[in-house]
Amino acid sequence: MANTLNLGNGNWATKEDSLLAYNSENGNFKPLPFDFSRASSATVVNKDGLIETVGSGIPRIDFRDDSKGALLLEPQRTNYDSESLNFTTSFMSNSSGIQSSSLTSKIAPNGSNDSVYKITKATDNSDPYLGRSGVSFTDTKMVFSAWLWTDENQSKDVLFLVYRDGTQEVQTKNITLTTTPTRYFIEATFTTTPSNVSYRIDLDGVSSNQYIYAWGKQLEQGSYPTSYIPTQGSVVTRLADVCNQSNIPTSVINSSEGVLYAEIKKDKGSQFSLISLDKSSDSANYVYVGYLNNTTSLRAQIKVDSVTVLDENINIGDTNVFSKVAVKYKSGDYAFFINGSKVGNTSTSTDSFSNGDLDRLEFGYNLSSSFKYYGLIKNVKLHNQALTDQELINLTTI
């Protein structure tokens, strides 16, 4: 199988404002840089499983799900908890049960041992809790998250509580903690104008003298948590990731036929998330594959000279798992493959791209903010020949 563009699959190289792919030409491997931008620092899980901060403009390769890593692309988000590592400020009860961040024997998810808090149930069974208050939002969804864990055979029932204007809004019960720090989150929708939001972790149901550990609070506007945004005294915004490769050489991309392949997992957001082959300032010719604006469907579409020659929308049940997808384009032979199955094709059209109609690979479509790809990308390949159905089944089999 000929493939002339390769990105990822364990072969990652990053530097400021650039993500390195490579192309194979006459048996040689040549670098093919992707433009990357994010005008702020951001965090990522490194090869050691620890959260680390990377600088502005540095692409993030996340190793949470696989030792080979995956490119992490996220939208702009703000952590409205202005002291993400301080659990003793603003909103707490029975503070004698909250030990300061001097637990040198406990390692936090970022590898440090100076920011872990221990919350202990008092002997009189009064409930210590910790959280935040006095944050105002109007008509919006919010999500609160934190890392919690315990020692073996310790507490099992912990509540995440969210309040709106003093009234409990939602709660998640029976969080079973383990010895591994795990990020738990709770979503709430606030419709009161204005809404004074308070949120806390409560040791309801925990026996006397039992305890938990806590680290890394985050309050975001949205329905799902994104990567951790550290704060120290003020709110902090992480800007969006943007990545594409413009002006792909004709030796790498064949406009008349080829295959776009990717191994991807969408975030839980509600926007379209697409990977496309297209051309700057040309909406008449493109190939794209990716997710619809829900959590259940994958889509492939090909348009040649404004004529739609393939348009498939496939419900896969859950897009929060990795899928292997491929879309083939060739005159009279357009097809879509997901996880080892051919799920759609068009064989009657004779339309085909002209030389130069496709010259950009973008994690998005047409540079539109409405179609940016947000999620994880393990692998992308661009084949300069239209592969056989069996080759594509083999390529996309999980």
What's the short version?
With 398 residues, this protein is mainly beta. The protein has one helix at 389-396, and strands spanning 5-8, 14-15, 18-25, 28-37, 42-45, 51-54, 60-62, 70-73, 77-79, 91-93, 98-99, 117-120, 129-137, 140-149, 159-164, 167-172, 182-190, 195-202, 211-221, 236-238, 242-245, 257-266, 273-279, 282-291, 297-304, 307-315, 323-330, 334-338, 341-346, 360-362, 375-383.
Structural write-up:
- This protein is an all-beta fold.
- It folds into two domains: 225 residues, Jelly Rolls; 161 residues, Galactose-binding domain-like (Jelly Rolls).
- The protein is built from one helix and 31 strands.
- The strands form six sheets. A nine-stranded antiparallel beta sheet has the order 2-3-4-21-30-23-24-25-26, with no helix packed on it. Strands 1, 7, 8, 22, 27, 28, 29 and 31 form an eight-stranded antiparallel beta sheet that branches. The protein has a five-stranded antiparallel beta sheet with strand order 10-13-18-15-16, with no helix packed on it.
- It is elongated and about 75 Å long.
- The model has no long low-confidence stretch (mean pLDDT 85).
